[in-house]
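Why this split exists: single-chain examples teach little about how molecules sit against one another. For that reason, every record in the complexes split bundles all components of an assembly together and asks for one structure covering all of them. Below is a record exactly as it appears in the raw files.
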Amino acid sequence: MTFTQCSSKRQDRIYLGFASAPVLGTTYLNFCVSTPACFSILQAYRLPSSAGHGDVMPVRVLSEGAGPGAEVPKHLTRIPISLISTSTDCSNNTVKGKVVSKCPPVSPASQNFILKTVIQEDDSPQNAASQNPSINVFLFGALAWDFNQTVNQGDLVVVTGFTVGKSPTFNKDKLHPCNLQLKGDDACVYVSHLPPPPPDPRALRTSKRRSALSASAEVSRSAKAPKPAYVKLSDLPIGPVVNVYGVVVFFKQPYKSRGDDFHSYFKITDQSNETIKCTIFCKKLEDHPKIFQNGDIVRMHRVKLQQRNDSTWLVKSPGFSALTFDGGQGRDIEPRTSSLSFHFDQEDRRIVEELRSWSASQSILPPVPTVRLSDVQPKAYFDLTCQLLAKAPMDSRCTVLRVWDGTKCPHNLQKVIVDPYAMEGPSSFSKKKESLIANILVYDNHAVFSTQLKPGDFLRIYNLRVIPGTAKVQDLTSSQSEEEVQQLAFHLHGGTTYGRGIRVLPENSPDVQELKRVMETLPDDEEEELNDSDLLEIWSTPPESLDAEAVEYSTERSCSHDVQPVTLSEVKRSHPGRVHHVRVQLRSYEPSRLHQALKLYCSKCRSMQDVPDDEEVAGLFSEASKDSGPCSPPPWALSGQVRVPADSPGSPDRSLSVHLSTQLMSEDKTKELIFLMGSTLEETCRLSAGYHNIVPVRSSGGDMALLDLSAPFLFRGRKRYYGCKQCSEAAVREPSCADGLELIDEKIVAEALGVQLLQFVLLMKLELQDATDTLDAFLWRDAESFFGVKAEEAAANQEAQNIIRQTMEFLCPAGGSTGERPWMDLCLTAYGAEDDGGQNQTCYQICHSTITRPSSTRPNANPA
DNA sequence: GATTAGGCTTCG
């Protein structure tokens, strides 16, 4: 049996409508013959008196097709839009452009219509969207009405008889400093219509799979609504609302912005070779274009080009809607949308097919990073189409997705320890299926998004990173030998760069269909029979995701509280004074240098202090030895000399003065307790090997006194004891051992000396985590039972320290991932406490909880 | 009604 632990090496740091205007009455239409350019003329001819205009108005609408055409008078000179200024001579000039937007006519005064349209130079030398000049054109009165009836987006117009005004909206729309105003007898518009699309009997067939309701909605829509015109991306005017089609060449999945909406960022291109950035904000995720991969074709209605920061962006405007199509040639043309009602006909089909074949003939798309698990390469980034089998939150920022795509990755894959209770979906699979499963750790925003995923979902995970690493594999058959094996981990880092994200694919998507076909060739889990050896393995080994040590380490609650386990977020919401049971992982802990976890605690004044380090203590000894004036020992003491062996060969032994209790002398217990004066810390430690209790003393004004209580008042073997400065009334007194049998220990000495004994405690702050939250909890009162180690022992012996260190390393492996941290069942108490600023806060303490260790690290089982 | 964000890898 082997266990693995991932220690993947960190690499270097490594987004026209038709106004339902009141009926004006009859407009008189007069048809003329078109020029080769197929122009029609819109000219005021006559308006009924009911419209409130003069009897005769120069309105004439001339339609293309059969009949005589119209010609733009030859004496008129065309001027480029870019050269229009308020000083332009209007009488003999024309302006020609494509209608890129047409607003509904408005009627500020009753029946006095105004219509705004934007025309754009269609044949200027430059082809860039921002370069093609366009201008606002305002039409008044009956001309506005006729224009609305006759002219469509995309039509080519020539206007004459205009006046040039200053554009009040130039600052906003950046279109043109001037506008054209068409009113009065001289105003005239020549129109060249876009050819109408041929009728297509298949128009409605694409909706065959849709419900009758939506199909009928389409029919009714297409019967009533005008056909939208689409603007080529190179012709996009800045400002006006337009409709567009484009091939996606870059995209990010919609993600929650810092504002209120989801944000989609993508780029589209078309046959004009213009690439346009699109940035769409929508509250609802389903309103965003459903882009699955580069090459997809997006149709957007009611968007506008906006100029900002030296660049242009396509943004949505009111009434925005989007359809998305697979961009693959020959694939079904099935619009992706959540809208029940949308217009889609043979014209759309033609546009999609044209874009597909155009895009197939170009090299506009980046290489497809979609690979299967069988083909993954270390260090690569790739898009994975897969099925989610199970998932489990690892902590508040990480979720593991257990996925498969029916192929077997030839590399070793990272194992992840998952709490079976936290797993959504099966917590184990057959051995065969298990070998096809990849554990994908998704972080941050993706972990949040993953809460919406359900086992069984088909997913595409974008920009998944393959991280090569090594795992320590312990082969128990060869006792303690460890070998390192290469393995791969899959991470979906937080953020959206390079389109990182997760998308649920619909079941009918061709990629999912393909995936299903592969999976269907594999035997079902249930069909696999368990044989004897499998059974044996199940009995004798833990689940594969647990490592060998984890089997032996476990946490237990020893309390008798009858409460159900709760999540950390629930703990945080409850009031202080309660007991909670939680199932958590250790995210981090303080102090990282474990010796700093040792504290000295006074049970009387409840103060806590750090254990002084050796340097500080040595300083106190050296200070004390300077006060070596004459000293009269107390009457109960006998004074003498003690020889301190030299610390190195060649140097002389040193003699120090000691004082002993007369009573102990009489009992021949000379080794039990000595009062030692003038020694260094080091000498005191050396002597502590031969004397059970050593109390360092000094001379103070001729009397014998204890050292400053920052130093230990007592040395007992390797243990040192400290007193509370605040609560002690220290004086050198003879310990009383009434029966003479009592062992002299720190308590007896402390009591005799009037020292309030400080207690060794372990104090740690553990950052706990579960799927819902993190929480800082103190481990203090029950720290000794948690580790099974006395704090006093930890202060004095290496073995005890090792146990604590190993336990912490097991609970929170250095450099280890969340997946490698075991789950702990803990009992927490919540209590109110004042912080340094006197503010009330809730604190948490771990209690009644124990770690049980494997035998190899149990105290005394394996003395070093 | 405005805001959000506006690509260009990596904490885990």
